[in-house]
Amino acid sequence: xxxxxxPAMLSxxxxxxxxxxxxxxxxxxxxxxxxxxxxRRTYEAPAEGRAGKIRLDFNENTTGCSPAVRxxxxxxxxxxxxxxxxxxxxxxxxxxxxxxxxxxxxxxxxGDDALRVFFDTFVDSGATVLICxxxxxxxxxxxxxxxxxxxxxxxxxxxNFPLDNALAALKKKPRVLFIANPNNPTGTLISREAICAIVxxxxxxxxxxxxxxxxxSGFTVVPCTRKFPNLFVVRTFSKAAGxxxxxxxxxxxxxxxxxxVRRAMPPYxxxxxxxxxxxxxxxxxxxxxxxxxxxxxxxxIFAAELSNFGVRVFPSAGNFLLADFxxxxxxxxxxxxxxxxxVRERSKEIAPGFVRISIGRASEMAAVLKxxxxxxxKAAIKNFS
Length: 385
Description:
By secondary structure, this protein is an alpha/beta fold. The chain contains 15 helices and 12 strands. Strands 2-8-7-6-5-3-4 form a 7-stranded mixed beta sheet, with helices on both faces. The protein has a 5-stranded mixed beta sheet with strand order 1-11-12-10-9, sandwiched between helices.
C-alpha cells in the first residue's frame, strides 16, 4: 500500500526516541551568556493594559500631542516608509529649534537609548558609574547589563541632592555620573552653580544631566556644554511633546566629545515617523508651551489639595509630584488601581506610603481627589500624616 502524500506516523517507541534525542541536543548546547545577564532579572515594563484608564503612572502627556504632529504623520508616503531614513535636513531643523548646532546633537531611539549609549562609549565591565537614588531606574538597569560597579548616593529625607557627597565621590574617578534634573521621582532641581561645581570636579568622568522634564522646570544647562567637554545633556520628546509612542531622544554635548558617542551608535537609530513628528512638534511650540503652563497650574492646585489631606508633598520641578501618604498609602494606591486610576507607588524605593503621581488634565486630577476622599471616608481617616 502506497504511503506517498500521507503523513508519517510515529510509534510510541519512535516518539519517545525522538524526544530523547531533542533532550540530548538541548543538553549539549551551552549558550555563552554574559555573567552580568545571568546575575540580573529580565527587565519587564511596569504595566500593560493601561488604555482607557486614568494614566498618572508614567509622567506622560495625557492631553496628547499637537494636531500638527498628527497632520504631519498622515502625510508620510508609502515610498518614504519604504526607504531608510535620511537625517541631515531634519537634524538641522531640530537642532536649530533646540538652540544648538547639528554637530552638537545626536538623536536616539528614545531617552532610554540616549542613556544606553554612554555605557557603550565609556563603561567597561567592572568600571564604576555613580548615581544618586531614588532616581530613574534605567541608570542602574544599564549599569547592571554592562557589568559595571554601581556607586550610590542618596537624596536626603527632604529630597535634597547630596552635593558634598557627590563632589567627594568624584575623586574616585567613576566613568559616568548620571543626574536627572529635575529628578524623577523626587522632583528635585539642582542649581546651575551646583552642576558647574560637579562638572569642574569631574576631571575623569562624563557627567550626564538627564533633562527629560526641562520644559516644566524652565531650566537647562545646554549652553554650558560648549564650555565643558565632559558635560552631556539628555532630552526626550516623550514628555512635554507627547511623543512617547514614537521613541525619540537626544544627546546634546560639545561637538568633539559627541564624536566619541557617535561611534557607539548604529547607522539608522531613529525611525522617520519620529523625526517628522518631532520637527512638527517643535515648529508648533505654542502647543507645548500651553500644555506646560496648564500642567504647572494644575500641579499647584493638586499639591495644595493633597496637603489638606495631611499628605506630605515634596516640591517638584516636573510634571509630577512625590507624596507621602503614610501607613495608609499602600491600601489607597491599591484601591486607586482597582478603580482604574494608575499611580506609581514608591514604597520599595523610598518608604511605605510614598507615591509619584503624574499631573494629568484637570478632570483626571479631580477624579483622583474624589477617590482619595472616598477612601478616607470609608477608612475613617481624617489625616494621612
